[in-house]
Amino acid sequence: xxxxxxxxxxxxxxxxxxxxxxxxxxxxxxxxxxxxxxxxxxxxxxxxxxxxxxxxxxxxxxxxxxxxxxxxxxxxxxxxxxxxxxxxxxxxxxxxxxxxxxxxxxxxxxxxxxxxxxxxxxxxxxxxxxxxxxxxxxxxxxxxxxxxxxxxxxxxxxxxxxxxxxxxxxxxxxxxxxxxxxxxxxxxxxxxxxxxxxxxxxxxxxxxxxxxxxxxxxxxxxxxxxxxxxxxxxxxxxxxxxxxxxxxxxxxxxxxxxxxxxxxxxxxxxxxx
Length: 273
Hints:
It is a single chain. By secondary structure, the protein is of the alpha+beta class. About 25% of the residues lie in helices and about 20% in strands. The chain has helices at about 5-20, 130, 145-150, 160-165, 175-185, 195-215, 225-230, and strands spanning about 25-30, 50-55, 60-65, 70-75, 80-85, 95-100, 105-110, 115-120, 250, 265. It catalyses: Hydrolysis of DNA containing ring-opened 7-methylguanine residues, releasing 2,6-diamino-4-hydroxy-5-(N-methyl)formamidopyrimidine.
């Protein structure tokens, strides 16, 4: 969980609920969540949230029209957020409490190791993982030139390349599977080996899958976004089920384990290499 379609919906929800509210304070259940040890959450107290923006899988809460400090939430592999009180739909452990005037946000992490982080900065670009992000397919300015610059002649497996945040922002394990299935390309094929037609299909799939998913998630409460995402998957997480396109049994991609495992259709995508 989270990838840019869900994080965008979360950012929109935070923006609608928190705009104009003062930050009252934060409490950490896990001290490692704070990545800026010299800048505690207390530095945000008294500042007013005036904007929320997504960067890949990160959310930036700007204060005082950008003149105040920023609170950057980096969700990592298993982080998420919930409005207080936490509901049964969000059973993950709460690792931080963020209090605003009239609202409380709980940050959660469901992973075996902590992946969520928060940073207090003057500019979100001070967060290294944001500064290094590649072009974002959900950005209206995203172009074929951005895509070709990444794919180029690299001898890297496409499944891994699509998840490389420095190359393409916001795509993770699940949507990389969905993109490759839509494009009808094997997940372990190398970018350098793609034909012109395959490049065209992959570019179209990157744009359509990410944008369609974002549109489909709008209006869904943040506590229900994970379930909505899982339900929408055609191949990811569907090992042993029938491909919805051709009926072939969906298989695991060789080499994946646990939460990093991926799935594909051996008929639609032509094997694994």
